[in-house]
TrEMBL record:
Its EC number is 1.2.1.-. Signal peptide: none annotated. It comes from the Bacteria. It holds the Pfam family Aldedh. GO terms for molecular function: oxidoreductase activity. This is NAD-dependent succinate-semialdehyde dehydrogenase. It comes from Enterovibrio norvegicus.
Amino acid sequence: MKQIKNHTLLSALCDNLDNTIAVTNPADQTLIGHVQAHSREEVEATILRARDAQKAWAKTTAKQRAAILMRWYELLMENQEDLARIMTLEQGKPLAESRGEVAYGASFVQWFAEEGKRAYGETIPTPLADRRIMTIKQPVGVAAAITPWNFPIAMITRKAAPALAAGCSFVAKPAIQTPLSAYAVVELARQAGLPDDLLAVVTSEDAPMIGDVFCNSTHIQKISFTGSTNVGRILMKQSAESVKRVSMELGGNAPFIVFDDADIDLAVKGAITSKFRNAGQTCVCANRFYVHDAVYEEFVHKFSLAVDELTVGNGLDDDVVIGPLIDDNAKLKIKSLLDQALQQGATVSAGGDDLGGQFFEPTVLTHVSHSMDIVQAEIFGPIAPVIRFSDDEELIEMANDTIYGLASYFYSKDINRIFKIAEALDYGMVGVNEGVISTEVAPFGGVKQSGIGREGARQGIDEYLNTKYICLGSM
């Protein structure tokens, strides 16, 4: 494995430990390395150390914290190529996408380094002449996170950076498929000057055990989770006993809508990026396509031609734009959804083939109805079902007919329609004539059963701060 500049990752791989987790490459199943499998006692001890480290960290100034975070940002970007290679090896996405994720993940560190200096309190006009009222912002304490395998760096930094900027300590449990990226970015944080126990990683194949420890620990005040809605429900229930603060970024079922006045070429370009980035394994990727009757044939034709041009393979190869699915279960899921759709009357317009291993050909389906299983489920793979519509009101009803409400997309040139549809879509995020909407400067999050809270933007740091009201009497 390549080295991170000035430091090899071997110390994080824990190859010499007895109790380890093997990390393999989803493209060819080769062994990359091992990480430690932590016991319950080790996780609890890590939390205690984070609690102690947080007390000193909270006493530092926002400016001091910002300097360390900015150095962390610089190290992430200096090591972008090495981090991207690690990510592609363990996650599978093409190197170009991995490089993009490193930069995206680093952008949150840079943003919150500055945002921590703007965690302002207030002076409130008093109702009584002898009193003065003010508020201050203080860190919640120890924060913990459970992060997914599909964005193994960005989901760490998007949570850890605001927590650290706010004065919290942070314990992260990455997915067992992609722990090396987490260990690598934490190592760089320590090189930047962050105290060892302030930002920690715990790993175990027993994910419910770590979730139970996090949710029931009296030393953890905040939990952030990105993953499935089902697991989010479990964590919320477990956290209720200690009335713990939670933020949840959960499942999605994003509609991608093409109106009759849309720029079709632009819509096709956005559809390719939104649907097939990371082999369709993103919570905000387009999940179901609604295309107006008047442009349906044109869109499907151009979309299918573009999909046929996509190259599938090992993410380390230069010409590859779609890597492998993360594991066998992911492939079995999309094959099952595809088979059901075909049995229910859908037809394949492009792709549709199992390419062996954990690879699957990007696929476009036509003759799809809104009621089909593949439309109602979160696909999390490279399959695009396309549905006809003719009426805007009917379209909104179908687009909102889901328990999820994370991201949505539509293409139109009509300014009146743009505002009407953007306001009518029951989603936390709406992309208008744009297929990629994630950025550190805007709030990321959903409504309905897609989650609670926001990440990024100025709202992101509020998730890790308490507002304290101070009343000064007898003035």
